[in-house]
Design a protein that fits this description.
Helix content is 84%, strand content 0%. The protein is an all-alpha fold.
Length: 390
């Protein structure tokens, strides 16, 4: 893989850290800015909403721009709004910076995915995708706990400064290492890419990505209370449990990168079935500490292996529209990231308790399996290519 891909992953690491770190900084932000903890929680919702709405919109804008300045511009905006966030004493201003940061993040990821697939062989999109998403999984392993630790030692503003500083070497790396290739607009424009997006295969793949990611974040969001309230794990061990999930995620992305280009049907078929079984087992064995620790690692790996493979299949399905496809894939994943915690909360509130959360994850994966089977039958009748075709 080209070294420039790993440099892009550094930027994705910074952005992933920013997206997830507020889960550990919310109480301090609420106290410092004089708002309630639920109000501080709106910072996370604002970021997710910005990613969902911003991914396709910024991708449309970026189609007309050369990729190197587009990547640099999105990173610069992302870094600057974190500086503003670190300095402000106004909660509405901080809330606004989260929306702008999400828009910049969405635009960067869309262009980065399009750039990545042009830097590798046509049949290596899965490996390129896995390198980029490795930055997100490393954010779960190191960035989020590191941000929480830094916030605890030096205050929540220090975590914002740290994200801005990480972006600086990534910006220089973009200028020096990303090929100076023309933007997609110079090869045909928005209309050309929009025409390439037609067809049910891409839409089905995006739907599957949203469902799988919803299942992932449904349980990941409530993994700590599941462990403390059902398993009986002490609160001091929760960071280690979350790190296990993150390590599994990184392992899953890395492994999928090796096989998703050549054997996508096997990765998705076997991985999807194992993922469904794993969520059911987690619900049944949530009271067993050893089982929960093992399943946290396994489910993290399976979730991101299947998820990253689906993103790669979306890029294959819309090879003529890499920027817009990257934007739609980003939006689909964030729809799932917003839907999953909401569905998990419904399970808890309905009386199923914390054990019901992984059952909801299993239901979401089962729905993805049903969608896949229906798509295969329909496309088989019309003689088309299936989503999971090798």
């Amino acid at each position: 893989m080209p070294f420039a891909l790993h440099l892009l992953a550094l930027a994705v690491f910074a952005q992933g850290t920013s997206e997830f770190m507020l889960s550990g900084l919310g109480p301090d932000i609420a106290h410092d800015l004089g708002v309630s903890i639920p109000a501080a929680g709106a910072l996370t919702s604002a970021f997710a909403l910005g990613m969902i709405v911003g991914a396709p919109l910024t991708a449309v804008l970026a189609v007309r721009w050369p990729r190197r300045p587009a990547l640099f511009g999105f990173l610069l905006v992302f870094a600057l709004v974190h500086v503003v966030g670190a300095l402000t004493t106004s909660f509405p201003v901080l809330l606004g910076t989260r929306v702008v940061a999400a828009l910049a993040n969405a635009g960067f990821l869309a262009v980065a995915l399009a750039t990545a697939v042009t830097m590798v062989a046509p049949d290596a999109k899965g490996r390129a995708t896995s390198v980029l998403l490795g930055g997100t999984t490393l954010a779960c392993v190191a960035g989020v706990p590191g941000g929480a630790l830094l916030g605890g030692l030096l205050g929540w503003r220090a975590a914002f400064w740290a994200v801005a500083l990480i972006c600086v070497p990534a910006m220089f790396a973009v200028l020096r290492s990303v090929p100076a290739e023309p933007g997609a607009g110079e090869r045909g424009g928005v209309r050309t890419e929009l025409r390439a997006l037609r067809g049910p295969r891409l839409l089905t793949t995006l739907l599957l990505g949203a469902l799988v990611n919803a299942a992932t974040f449904c349980t990941f969001t409530y993994l700590a209370p599941v462990a403390t309230e059902v398993t009986g794990i002490g609160k001091d061990w929760i960071p280690a449990l979350l790190a296990l999930f993150g390590l599994g995620s990184y392992a899953g992305v890395s492994t999928a990168g090796r096989f998703s280009d050549t054997y996508p049907k096997r990765v998705l078929g076997i991985g999807g079935a194992a993922l469904l079984l794993g969520w059911v087992l987690l619900a049944l064995l949530a009271g067993n500490t050893a089982a929960v620790l093992v399943l946290a690692f396994v489910q993290g790996g399976l979730s991101f292996a299947v998820g990253s493979t689906l993103i790669a299949r979306a890029l294959y399905a819309a090879s003529g529209a890499p920027t817009l496809a990257g934007g739609l894939a980003t939006a689909a994943l964030n729809v799932g990231a917003a839907l999953g915690p909401w569905a998990g909360g419904l399970a808890i509130g309905s009386g199923l308790g914390y054990r019901g959360v992984p059952l909801v994850s299993a239901l979401l994966v089962a729905l993805a399996v049903v969608v896949t089977c229906v798509a295969r039958v329909v496309r088989g009748r019309v003689g088309g290519e299936t989503v999971l075709a090798d």
